[in-house]
Design goal:
Elements lengths: L8 E4 L3 H12 L4 E4 L5 H18 L5 H9 L1 E4 L10 E4 L5 H14 L5 E4 L6 H5 L8 E6 L8 E6 L5 H13 L3 E6 L6 H4 L3 H10 L5 H12 L5 H8 L1 H14 L11 H7 L13 E3 L2 E3 L15 E3 L4 H13 L15 E4 L6 H8 L6 E4 L9 E4 L6 H11 L6 E4 L7 H17 L5 H12 L5 H8 L1 H15 L8 H9 L8
Parallel strand pairs: 1-2, 1-4, 2-3, 4-5, 5-6, 7-8, 11-12, 12-13, 14-15
Antiparallel strand pairs: 6-7, 9-10, 13-14
Helix pairs in contact: 1-2, 8-10, 10-11, 16-18, 16-19
Length: 505
């Protein structure tokens, strides 16, 4: 399409999101008009965009001519009247319902009848925003992620009255700009913020219960499952205040559904000014923008004098543990029951180590649980309990770390860390599909692009088996007696029929 035929785009609000949207569409060849009511804001935004484009030139990603052409396509607008000729106007102002509604009413009086009005809201109902307009059918959500030019995804949100052709135009514009348009109806949290109500909230629940420290949880998930950031690193990066506002918003919009219950720990930290990187401290401390790594106390170097017994009979796992035991100067027993000296390793999926000990009649003082779902090549997780002999724990830690792989010791919990968080992710993902928020492929792709997960929730479900996570959720539900861990009917149905999670049927 020739440049002259491209949609003329207006953006209201020159903050982080607004200027990012301006840059995205100007680079894509659109004429873009930018308005901000704050004096000097537009000049600041233009200077910021110019610096970013200059960096792209320095890195060889953009020519000097392209930079100048891009800047020439950006036009300051002193008032809303300057947006009258735009085919699309995107508001990116403060996240406040009344303020956004007032702006949309004003824009409706300025733009042509065929123009689209879009909101970059991350959490407000698009339908409620549009209800303030005489023509709500031309209003849609267009939710980008920060930094806009780099995060190759935008949620295209359909209000209850939004015309299909409006959604089609926004979808096409996104693709032309190099972004994946994740189509979603107007539901709480839309798609990405809805899907994100598993990873961080369940990690906070583990912290609430004293199961593991933030650093332990982050290390386990990053090393074992390949997440680029642990949940507490992510909280600190985004800001505890920002994340908690989304958690509370989604929770309230779903009428306090226990699936989405926020953590009591976060408001307390917010009140103390511990907001994350931007305040210098959240769950971690920061100096000059860099995280100060918490001290890791190595396990004591103790001689390993006891043999080991493993409840798993698969040759692969027995060979692994046998090699580690031998490297530590010990051995793995072959009997169906442990000897009176053996350190017993059990490998529950969903159950606590305490329940496993009681069920199997094993000696509590000599029994620990070993996480096997997520493998043990990069990280090994041992689960202790109140009755464990500390000398046994020390020997087990020493033996399992004999090859240099870090060993994390956590407290008794149904589902360890990885099992529990993955099960919750798969369950929330299943509910998203059940509610018609997104198709499985859209969900998984959106989560990977927006949240940086190594796999989408349903792909994780397929990888480890949906039955596994239904079992873990069942154990969590039995242990706590809370509807928070009820298994999604969609997940139950897929398991019963043997249907894949990642395909639309």
């Amino acid at each position: 399409m020739a440049e002259s035929a491209k949609e003329r785009i207006g953006v209201v609000g020159s903050g982080v999101m607004g200027r990012g949207i301006v840059q995205l569409f100007a680079v894509a060849g659109h004429q873009v008009w930018l308005h901000d009511s704050r004096e000097g804001a537009i000049e600041e935004a233009l200077g910021f965009i110019g610096e970013l484009l200059e960096r792209s030139v320095a890195k060889g990603r953009l020519s000097a001519e392209e930079r100048e052409a891009t800047l020439a396509r950006i036009h300051p607008s002193d008032g809303l009247a300057g947006l009258a000729e735009c085919d699309l106007v995107i508001e990116a102002i403060v996240e406040n319902l009344e303020a956004k509604q007032a702006l949309l009413r004003q824009l409706e009086e300025v733009v042509a009848s065929g123009a689209i009005l879009a909101s970059n809201t991350s959490s407000l109902s698009v339908t409620r925003l549009a209800s303030a307009c005489r023509h709500p059918e031309r209003v849609a959500g267009y939710h980008f992620f920060n930094p806009v030019p780099l995060m190759k995804i935008v949620e295209v949100v359909r209000g209850e009255l939004t015309r299909p052709e409006v959604i089609a135009r926004l979808e096409r514009l996104a693709r032309e700009a190099g972004h994946f348009p994740a189509l979603t109806p107007d539901t709480p949290g839309f798609l990405v913020n809805h899907a994100g109500r598993a990873y961080v909230p369940e990690a906070l629940r583990l912290l609430d219960e004293g199961i593991a420290t933030p650093a332990q949880i982050d290390r386990i998930l990053c090393l074992s499952l390949g997440f680029r950031m642990g949940p507490f690193e992510l909280l600190d990066l985004i800001g505890l205040d920002v994340t908690h506002a989304v958690m509370e918003s989604v929770y309230r919009q779903f009428y306090d559904d226990p699936y989405y219950t926020p953590s009591w720990q976060v408001p307390r930290r917010i009140a103390a000014g511990l907001l994350g990187r931007k305040s210098g401290e959240g769950f971690y401390r920061y100096a000059q923008g860099k995280r100060l790594e918490p001290d890791i106390v190595p396990p004591p170097a103790v001689p390993v004098t006891r043999p080991f017994w493993l409840d798993r009979r698969e040759s692969e796992w027995r060979e692994r543990i046998a090699r580690l035991a031998e490297a530590a100067g010990s051995r793995l027993e072959e009997g169906a029951a442990p000897s009176e000296e053996a350190i017993c390793l059990v490998t529950p999926q969903g159950e606590t180590v305490s329940e496993t000990i009681a069920e199997r009649g094993l000696p509590a003082e000599r029994t620990l649980a070993l996480e096997t779902l997520a493998g043990c090549d990069a990280c090994r997780v041992l689960m202790r309990h109140p009755a464990i002999d500390e000398e046994v724990l020390a020997q087990a830690s020493a033996a399992l770390g004999a090859d240099g792989v870090p060993v994390e010791v956590i407290h008794d919990s149904p589902g360890f860390v990885a099992q529990r968080i993955l099960a919750f992710m798969v369950n929330i993902g299943s509910e998203i599909v059940r509610r018609g928020v997104a198709e499985p492929a859209t969900l998984d792709r959106a989560v990977k692009l927006a949240l940086g997960y190594p796999q989408g929730p349903l792909a994780f479900g397929e990888r480890f088996g949906p039955q596994t996570f239904a079992r873990v959720l069942g154990c969590l539900h039995d242990h706590y007696g809370e509807p928070r861990y009820r298994v999604s009917p969609w997940l139950k149905q897929r398991i019963a029929l043997g249907l894949p999670l990642c395909e639309s049927l």
